[in-house]
Amino acid sequence: MAKDKKYRKKKLGSYPFASVVFSVTLALFVMGLFGLLILTTNNLTRLIQENVEIQVFLHKGLSQNEVVKITKILSSKDYVLKSGGQAQIQHITKEEAAETFMEETGEDFVNFLGDNPLRDVIKIKVSPEYQASQNLAEIKKEIGFISGVFEVTYIENLVQSINKNVRKISYVLVGFTVILLIVVVVLINNTIKLALFSQRFLIRSMQLVGATSSFIRKPFLSRASWFGLLSGMLACALIWGVLQLAEREIEGLIDLVRMDELLVLTAAMLLVGLLVGFISTFAAIKKYMKMSLDELY
Amino acid sequence: MELNSRPVVEVSETDIYQESHTVLSDISFKIEKGEFVYLIGRTGSGKSSLLKTLYADLAFHKGAIEVAGYDLTKIKSKNIPYLRRKIGIIFQDFQLFPDRTVTENLTFVMRATGWKDRTKMKGRLAEVLMRVGLGAAAEKMPHQLSGGEQQRVVIARALINEPLILFADEPTGNLDPEVSSGIFGLFKEINRSGTSVLMATHNHKFIEDHPARVLKCDEGKLLDSAEHEFELSGHY
Ligand SMILES: Nc1ncnc2c1ncn2[C@@H]1O[C@H](COP(=O)(O)OP(=O)(O)O)[C@@H](O)[C@H]1O
Ligand SMILES: [Mg+2]
């Protein structure tokens, strides 16, 4: 048996950890980016979906009765978003519209023109099931036939195109995460193999005096778990940093990330770090302890 | 107390293997509690292989082996540590850690074998060191001890868990004659207090001065002086 030349006190379970921590951190960071992307798009989608609106402009000079009738017809439609049993419909008179307009522009155009050129408008929030562009086009057509309706407009829903792009990015990020996790597992495997080999004298002695495998494994496992956790913390710090940077570039971005969800993401990253460290170390030790330690190289 | 009446080692019709070649074939013997047995034979005759098999470090293929109440034929690997706590191993390849004091060497073993109580550990440590005559060496590093003293620490380590039997593989191999007989005396003393000893040795003088049962590895067979007489001397 090759004797250790150096009389440096070796601790069981120690191993060079820098590369392990680095790679686990990287893997978790990419995973965190993926998580962040999913969270923001989910919230963005919800935000957009709650605000898909159809504006129904009415003919001028309709009576109060006629307006009420149109509102009632629209309220009964399935495509109108219901919130608390209440159809999300809003009637804005041309006077109200003019006031808002004046507030925004600071120009008293009614006085200037001597007439209010605006029309009464009914704003309808559309429930998510009817937000596909095809549906919206049909709804527009249908409303157009109601007598008293002058014009129907809506802004094309962005959700579909957002989701399509997000899905593409997700595939890339998930792919990266998987590759990095594989790299991590292989790296940990090799690191543990090296550590077991360099400590074979110690381990062999422990085996000969009757130390159980779990006793020998314990220092390796606790170290690996700790390094996994440390990597998780580093990756979380990176994610928070990225979020701060992004917020500086895109204002309002941070409002798309809810604090409670971010905390869940953080906890998940720490947990995955810990589990990856623990499980891959456990597997590596189990594999190599079965062999005679001298056969490792 | 069935264990007390049963042999500490019982080998029946077993083959000892190194990798795929047979080192000893069809061997059978028993060692009773408190017995002292020499194991002799030329270099390469299979003494170490036999001892390794007895402490479950080397697999065997045929027959049955029972050591300290454990049936090695079907022992699960998770039970091997508990078998090893009932035996003491003194082996050339099994040296002290050069980077720790005597105390650290021994407490390391205690912790590895499930000792937790600090007071008990201290007590046991003092006990085994006294027993091997090294009460004053507790804080020394192995390189500060002579070869004989180091071997005494190794024996102390083997005694920690009060083994039923000591397996010693050429325990005096590297020591000069005077120191050797001191170490041998220690084995005899340990044996007198009831621990069985199976000692592989080349030292013919021990056998002459302290006759006891001899097992001899000879051309793939194991001869037993308890069964029939054979030539002790010859080429070692
Ligand atoms: N680790 C090993 N691998 C393969 N063969 C071995 C190994 N150790 C010993 N042998 C062989 O087994 C035989 C018995 O060796 P050993 O038990 O060491 O004998 P002894 O201890 O009596 O000198 C020898 O032929 C030796 O070459
Ligand atoms: Mg030998």
TrEMBL record, chain A:
GO BP terms: cell division
Any Gene Ontology CC annotation: plasma membrane
InterPro entries membership: ABC3_permease_C (IPR003838), FtsX (IPR004513), FtsX_ECD (IPR040690)
Localization per record: Cell membrane
Superkingdom field: Bacteria
Membrane topology: Multi-pass membrane protein
Assigned keywords, A-Z: Cell cycle, Cell division, Cell membrane, Membrane, Transmembrane, Transmembrane helix
All copies of domain ABC3 transporter permease C-terminal, residue ranges: 176-292
TM spans (from-to): 12-39, 171-196, 224-243, 263-285
Residues of the FtsX extracellular domain: 52-152
Pfam families: FtsX, FtsX_ECD
PANTHER family on file: CELL DIVISION PROTEIN FTSX
Family: Belongs to the ABC-4 integral membrane protein family. FtsX subfamily.
Name assigned to this protein: Cell division protein FtsX
Organism: Reichenbachiella agariperforans
From TrEMBL, chain B:
Keywords for this protein: ATP-binding, Cell cycle, Cell division, Nucleotide-binding
Organism: Reichenbachiella agariperforans
Gene3D superfamilies: P-loop containing nucleotide triphosphate hydrolases (3.40.50.300)
Gene Ontology BP terms: cell division
Keyword Secreted: no
Keyword Cell cycle applies: yes
Pfam hit, one: ABC_tran
Physiological role: Part of the ABC transporter FtsEX involved in cellular division. Important for assembly or stability of the septal ring.
The ABC transporter domain, residue ranges: 3-236
Protein's name according to its UniProt entry: Cell division ATP-binding protein FtsE
GO annotations of cellular component type: plasma membrane
Molecular function as annotated in GO: ATP binding; ATP hydrolysis activity; transmembrane transporter activity
Family (UniProt): Belongs to the ABC transporter superfamily.
Superkingdom in the source lineage: Bacteria
